[in-house]
Design brief:
Helix content: 55-70%
Number of helices: 5
Distance between the termini: 21 Å
Largest sheet: none
Structural class: mainly alpha
Order of helices and strands: HHHHH
Shape: rod-shaped
Strand content: under 5%
Radius of gyration: 23 Å
């Protein structure tokens, strides 16, 4: 997935770029515009970015998940190495711990 960023000083140049993208066959759902003047974007029929695009939650969750997988691997390895459960646990317990730590990383991200 590629992202292109254009920085403009005024909304008229943004409208021109939007027209050029439409003429090239790119639909509104394939580009989003971030701006301070939401009313101006709406008035000129320029597709503004949604709430999730503004906060970039998906990228942060991916980073948190990656960190969670690394931490979960370390925690599961440490618990199995130290025999923390005194050998009275199954493999599913380690899978559950791995999943919990990974999902916590996604949530924290």
């Amino acid at each position: 997935m590629k992202r292109l960023y254009y920085l403009t000083d005024d909304i008229e140049s943004c409208a021109g770029i939007s027209r050029d993208l439409h003429e090239a066959g790119i639909s509104d759902w394939n580009f989003h515009v971030l701006g301070k003047d939401e009313a101006g974007l709406y008035k000129r029929h320029i597709h503004s970015a949604g709430y999730l695009h503004k906060l970039d939650i998906v990228r942060d969750a991916e980073r948190g998940g990656l960190i969670g997988v690394i931490a979960a691997t370390a925690v599961a390895w440490y618990l199995s190495w130290t025999n923390a459960f005194a050998g009275h646990t199954s493999f599913l317990m380690y899978v559950a711990i791995f999943g919990f730590v990974t999902l916590f990383g996604v949530w924290a991200g």
